[in-house]
Write a structure and sequence with these properties.
alpha/beta; Rossmann fold; six-stranded parallel beta sheet; three-stranded parallel beta sheet; globular
């Protein structure tokens, strides 16, 4: 019997499709309401990976016709100055979405920033008000990576209703919101974490398995049910003999693609969806602020 390889869930293509739809909605918003959504991104310090993300966000924001505002502050900027900037952006009518690129330097409290950003401009969906709305099943802004994970699963499987979903990881950034979103899609949801017992056996019952841990190649073929849809959120840099780092996920893709029905690759899976969902949230925030119905995408 020949084994069939898992379908590669093409996050790049799905993200491009979402951006194309967003570009059309932005055009309509400009035509019908004379509004151009504006996203403000704040970067404190010069972390190379963060600089790459911020550049990509700015470029993609402009490509779909939105305004991109960048605020680059030196690493030693006092916490109060960053908080003052957030307050200014909260008050600015010309700004619809605010994102502070994390991590911020150690002397600045990430939590203070999360709680200060106005919930209706919180395009990262991390404010407790938006996290609470998600938990309550009320419309709000949902954190970008989890939104991207669920869009990938839906693009692959269609209706998720009744499926067993297992999420490894319970962070506020990824694990918990993914679980809430999958519950909203009528999945039966189990969350695993570092204290969970027999994770491999729990995962082996999943129709949808989401790995959001930060441990390279942790999920092995024996953890995966035949035909399952596997979404790999992990981004891990692993040193190679050549001296160059390689990007790998939390899933041992080489093994798992022999068992799974579909698998999102790293890179090229969840990663591209995260920025596309940030733009989705910027459009949603603009619509919310102007009392306009968010277009169906
Ligand atoms: P995090 O805050 O460090 O959370 C990791 C979670 O994994 C925690 O809930 C932890 O459990 C759990 N965990 C750790 N070791 C475990 C083990 N041996 N068995 C089971 N669970 C274990 O990380 P995160 O922010 O959620 O990110 C997770 C991964 O996704 C990282 O690789 C990150 O780089 C990546 N990521 C990717 C994107 C993207 O755009 N593609 C965006 C965000 C994050 P406890 O709660 O018990 O400690």
């Amino acid at each position: 019997m020949t084994s069939q390889q898992a379908v590669r869930i093409d996050g790049k293509a799905i993200a491009q499709n979402l951006r194309d739809q967003l570009a059309k909605s932005v055009e309509t918003l400009q035509k019908d309401h004379d509004i151009t959504p504006a996203l403000a991104v704040v970067l404190v310090g010069a972390d190379p990976a963060s600089e790459v993300y911020v550049r990509a966000k700015g470029k993609q924001t402009q490509e779909i016709g939105m305004k991109s505002l960048e605020f680059k502050l030196p690493a030693d900027t006092p916490e109060q100055d960053v908080l003052d900037l957030v307050e200014k952006l909260n008050a600015a009518d010309s700004v619809n979405g605010i994102l502070v690129q994390f991590p911020v330097p150690d002397h600045i409290s990430q939590q203070k920033i999360i709680e200060l950003i106005s919930p209706d401009k919180d395009v990262d969906g991390l404010h407790p008000m938006n996290a609470g709305k998600l938990a309550a099943g009320v419309e709000g802004l949902v954190s970008c990576t989890p939104l991207g994970c669920v869009m990938l699963a839906k693009a692959q499987l269609g209706d998720l209703s009744g499926l067993n979903a297992v999420i490894i990881g319970r962070s506020n950034l990824v694990g918990k919101p993914v679980a809430q979103l999958l519950l909203k899609e009528n999945c039966t949801v189990t969350i695993c974490h570092s204290r969970s017992k027999d994770i491999d056996q729990i995962c082996a019952r999943a129709d949808i398995l989401v790995a959001a841990v930060g441990r390279p190649n942790m999920v092995k073929a024996s953890w995966v049910k035949a035909g399952a849809c596997v979404i790999d959120v992990g981004i891990n840099r692993v040193a190679q003999a050549s001296g160059k780092d390689k990007l790998v996920g939390d899933v041992d893709a080489e093994q798992v693609r022999e068992v799974a029905g579909s698998l999102s690759p790293v890179p090229g899976g969840v990663g591209p969806m995260t920025i596309a969902c940030l733009l989705h949230n910027t459009l949603q925030a603009t619509c919310l602020q102007n009392d306009i119905l968010m277009p169906k995408l």
